[in-house]
Amino acid sequence: MPGNSLGKALTITTFGESHGPAIGVIIDGLPAGLPVKKEDLEFELSFRRPGRLFVSGRREKDEPEILSGIYNGRTTGSPLAILIRNTDVISSFYEEVKNKPRPGHADLPYIMRYGYENWDYRGGGRASARETATRVAAGAIAKKLLMLTNTSIAGHLISLGPIELDEKVSFEEILCSKYSPVRASKKSLESKYEELVKSATVEGDSYGGVAEIVVNNPPKALGEPVFDKIKADLAKAILSIPAVMGFEYGLGFKAAKMKGSEANDEIIFKDDKITWKYNNSGGILGGITTGEPIILRCAFKPTSSIRKPQKTVDLRNNKETEISVLGRHDPAVAIRGVTVAEAMVALVLADHAIRSNVIPQVKLSDKDVEIIENNWKRYVNSCKPTEGSQ
Amino acid sequence: MPGNSLGKALTITTFGESHGPAIGVIIDGLPAGLPVKKEDLEFELSFRRPGRLFVSGRREKDEPEILSGIYNGRTTGSPLAILIRNTDVISSFYEEVKNKPRPGHADLPYIMRYGYENWDYRGGGRASARETATRVAAGAIAKKLLMLTNTSIAGHLISLGPIELDEKVSFEEILCSKYSPVRASKKSLESKYEELVKSATVEGDSYGGVAEIVVNNPPKALGEPVFDKIKADLAKAILSIPAVMGFEYGLGFKAAKMKGSEANDEIIFKDDKITWKYNNSGGILGGITTGEPIILRCAFKPTSSIRKPQKTVDLRNNKETEISVLGRHDPAVAIRGVTVAEAMVALVLADHAIRSNVIPQVKLSDKDVEIIENNWKRYVNSCKPTEGSQ
Amino acid sequence: MPGNSLGKALTITTFGESHGPAIGVIIDGLPAGLPVKKEDLEFELSFRRPGRLFVSGRREKDEPEILSGIYNGRTTGSPLAILIRNTDVISSFYEEVKNKPRPGHADLPYIMRYGYENWDYRGGGRASARETATRVAAGAIAKKLLMLTNTSIAGHLISLGPIELDEKVSFEEILCSKYSPVRASKKSLESKYEELVKSATVEGDSYGGVAEIVVNNPPKALGEPVFDKIKADLAKAILSIPAVMGFEYGLGFKAAKMKGSEANDEIIFKDDKITWKYNNSGGILGGITTGEPIILRCAFKPTSSIRKPQKTVDLRNNKETEISVLGRHDPAVAIRGVTVAEAMVALVLADHAIRSNVIPQVKLSDKDVEIIENNWKRYVNSCKPTEGSQ
Amino acid sequence: MPGNSLGKALTITTFGESHGPAIGVIIDGLPAGLPVKKEDLEFELSFRRPGRLFVSGRREKDEPEILSGIYNGRTTGSPLAILIRNTDVISSFYEEVKNKPRPGHADLPYIMRYGYENWDYRGGGRASARETATRVAAGAIAKKLLMLTNTSIAGHLISLGPIELDEKVSFEEILCSKYSPVRASKKSLESKYEELVKSATVEGDSYGGVAEIVVNNPPKALGEPVFDKIKADLAKAILSIPAVMGFEYGLGFKAAKMKGSEANDEIIFKDDKITWKYNNSGGILGGITTGEPIILRCAFKPTSSIRKPQKTVDLRNNKETEISVLGRHDPAVAIRGVTVAEAMVALVLADHAIRSNVIPQVKLSDKDVEIIENNWKRYVNSCKPTEGSQ
Description:
Four copies of one chain form a homotetramer.
Chain A: E1 5-6, E2 11-16, E3 22-28, H1 38-45, E4 64-66, E5 70-71, E6 74-75, E7 80-85, H2 107-114, H3 132-145, E8 152-160, E9 163-164, H4 171-176, H5 187-203, E10 209-216, H6 230-239, E11 244-249, H7 260-263, E12 267-270, E13 273-276, E14 284-285, E15 288-289, E16 294-300, E17 310-314, E18 319-323, H8 333-355, H9 366-381
Antiparallel strand pairs in A: 1-2, 2-3, 3-7, 4-7, 5-6, 8-9, 8-10, 10-16, 11-16, 12-13, 14-15, 17-18
Helix pairs in contact in A: 1-3, 3-8, 6-8
């Protein structure tokens, strides 16, 4: 049964394998009138692109081609299709994988499910994190749509391996972490993360990390009883990301240790508006957004592909053996995972904003477009490092 | 937009408010031939029923009526509808709530979304955990279907407030925890949990807790790339439960602190079968089940309804005020939440088992029915406390 | 796989068998604030109720109970469940059917699909037209929602067996045909239809007929490229009605005999508004509503249940035999089918009106409610026969 | 809301405009192991390709590129994406259309819906029949899947304008009509159709036609109560085709004129198998396939684009005017429409075959693949005209 689509009012359907000709995504349900440029997609893609410091060395330009749904630079209400060709494919790294399933990877489950003979092992095939580039491209459009309500989404790594963020950070700092090569929201943290990542590379090992995503100025009253609670749809979207093993929002797992009188958030007046004292619930109550910032966290496991030899089996002779996973891999998938998680949050919120009439289903007005363009410009220009700083 | 349905191959659609005439569920997608008795539903419902020790005092018999989809005691392939009348409704408790939204509750978000005048405040309306009875009834049928592969699902509380389970427990012990009034899998833990719950009741406060759900002997190779990964669908189902603030599976958040060489699970031979050394991935790799036990955990926040006075606002006069939530509430929703979480896991697995041809979509064979009946009988009789012990 | 739900933004899920305890429907996706009374449902149900002249003699009161989704007489945004108990069930008529599948009926296909042993043969089980009562109840609510745009839907029989309507009729006449026992929009036609129906009853035979449904003042610009064209969704909804074997809109099959220069509708100005000269396209172009009246027709086959003996097989001994179908049946299902077809059109239009932001997804305003109430009152009172005339 | 996807177990999502860079389709839900070659797609596409005699002169090679979902020539269980670049685009024909909506076309409704400024008028944009090439490509794969049950689908024109087929034809003759440039199943009919089409071209006019699609050897027991009846899903799929204004199956509209004793089909034994005497119900009873040939018909209106001048309005000055539609158009869309209708039937049947476990959801066996390959070879080679005959 089909499992490659997500969203009800705004639906993405993705396709493509790591070492096939291309990956891509169809976005259906966009209202007409949204200005979309290739540059918008490239902006977001630049923050998950491989081939940079501290991430996989695969040199993909990730150049998106918009195939449909745009006329005169604006959406038409028809599905918008984005194609990204795979260009830097070196499948030879993967010959060994064909018979030695990699620990921590989807190799064996895919073989179990689809049959050894139908398994596109090259680069992990469909299970490869390469697929997430299409999510980021689609997420760029969702982010732009959300500019209508001046909603912005930002993520950072609150921990990497054993190292944890132990300071308060502003939304601005989180937003600017995308220019940090290790997705740190504080300079002091950045250097510690970098040390760790370097050590992992040297050891042929990898680290996990926890990403936190914050949504500033989210529309309130989004989310539907009972199963399409915003927290439920966020959890699904986040857990659909490869390597994510946990999700929490607001107090999260900490709430389980607390008393009701501590965890409950008092309802107060602030500037004559009803609000909550601590936003303990991370912007979501009863599965519906409160209008306070949405705060969620997700746990990425360490990159499964490591050079360090690990035990596995040889499928040809049914014997135990070892594998040292070569290829070009991230020392910590969590770093690039932050951008992917942001995209998933954007897609869920845009979907729900349309479901709740906050964003129109059919057509944006001229006024809408103006608001979006202005907010998007501000968003794109925020935090921009000065020439030569990166 | 509709948000009250879950599942693609096996779909449940629920309805009903806490203090309306009834709650209920339609289960669509069941193959013909499954023997279903009212007693099957009552068996599962008995473990979340209110009116027992340590849980809400509301005296609901939770008597399910099967309205359709059954002929001669077996499913016909048509939708099976279950109705549970609300009988012990005392709405007077809720008069105060109408103008004083309760901290930690969905009151205010529902008002924001649907309008004050359309808000059925009585007993929390649709946001009430009462709705989860319908999930448990539907889950009973999903559990029974899964008997075809001899799959069983059990849950327990691995922590309640500050108290944590610190021993290894067997699947059998977890399974039998349903007869513990505080959902403890160890006797020593049970008494500690009970003390805590009693103290909460005395203080007019409540506690959170962490439930762990284990699936024994799950079908392997369930789950679909990319968005309908089994971990994603489980996360959504679990987060759709009221009061759940976090989800993890396998190593979960712990993985984020680890190295790849620690978190990766070595692939080995055991009894001539390929398997994993530690099941670190909690039975799910690449979003697909491995055949190893599925292990997941979810964090329940403390019951939001507490007697202890908390700050809120009075909507009539826009002033800050206090509320002491009366009504009959659980000192820890996590206790009854375990049964609900089990039901959600059962529904997701049954849905995916049908999606993967492990359970037939249209009709069970006589052989299938025999296997199901035998395994179900064993399941129902397991752990049964001796006469008078509960 | 589930097949008992229809609609994306407004979804109905139906359940129930002809001779089971009850039939019912859940309507999900209704905005909050819509006033719904039991009487609204009963009004529409009265036009398809059995036990009247010229239709089946089964005496069902069809008394709907609203189980959820209403508070203070208005929708809450939660699913609205409607239950109709079966009261006048005489299953003994059906003992013969168990072994002698009825020509023209679903008996044999249901047996093929779900197995003889799982087949609820009593009254046709799920395949019975009794199920359509739930559609009419749901359709009543859809019709009421559409009062927001002052859209009304009416149907009549343009042919019954060999007799055809050969005059022009006004929308008002079509609307008032619901008070005709044979669904005729002209008095002269009514008497001819009645003669025909009486002759069929005497002969133990039945007749087919063609229903025409007209939507007055439909919202324009409804319908979505490519697969959810309004014509496609209408066709599915209409063909989902038992006994319907054909669908057409506008010129329909006649268009296939024509030249482009005849079938194309010229675009003109009328009262300073752009419009079409003849509405040849029945209010739908490119799958999108034009704002002109929607006109569609559907062919009902003759009632399959006839007293006249027909050849069939005896499943016990695999021999050819005869059956004379007893029970209480309509001489022409097309008569009551008109009301069902109206309901299906209402449900599709309401679904699309929500999908196109013509009706709000979440909540109606006070102004909206006032418009709806006024238009609904007018609709209910239109054509009312004077005391004693029926 | 999204409207560009169809199917539940086998889903297609299409994208692309007539004069944009490309059109394409993602097929999700294919089991692993199906051999798919570019040539399979090209084979089916060749029967709807423009640039041939009696159809539009646009010279599109319609060369499909498979972007994903295939490894070693077989499906992997991942979504299969097909891209067709637009190469012969002459948008200049359409400058006039921008301000003069064409009678019979979607121009005005698209403007109403999405706004004049967002309307891609070039070649009809998304409303163009060009989009149907993607359906034919996807349909090729569905047809191939259905080879597992040796099911084949064929269509022909039973009428073109006023000319009607008045002889019995065999399935073989229908199947071979694809090599007729006017889709006639009889040589005598072919010459009459050709004359008519030539006259239309000369007059600058066009004709409608009725296509009949026959499914030989369909799987029995496909179709789901209540809304996903096979007849309902077929009707939706067929009405989603541009220019189709009517659908019927079996006796269709004729049944409405008949008595029950005539329309009911007697159930008999033939070769020791239970069957129906006349297949009056066109292979579908109760919305479920009976195993007899499925027979359905659909009415295509005449091509809306005609050279003959027609009245329309000029949107710049709000005055009535005339338009003579240039561009390269079919004298009768019904001709190429037959191939599209075949594809839609194939897609619906394959979807339902998977929903009913007749085709596996996850993976084909080696035996399955062998059957498919053999039957496909026979299908492709059937009716092949001898060298130089076309």
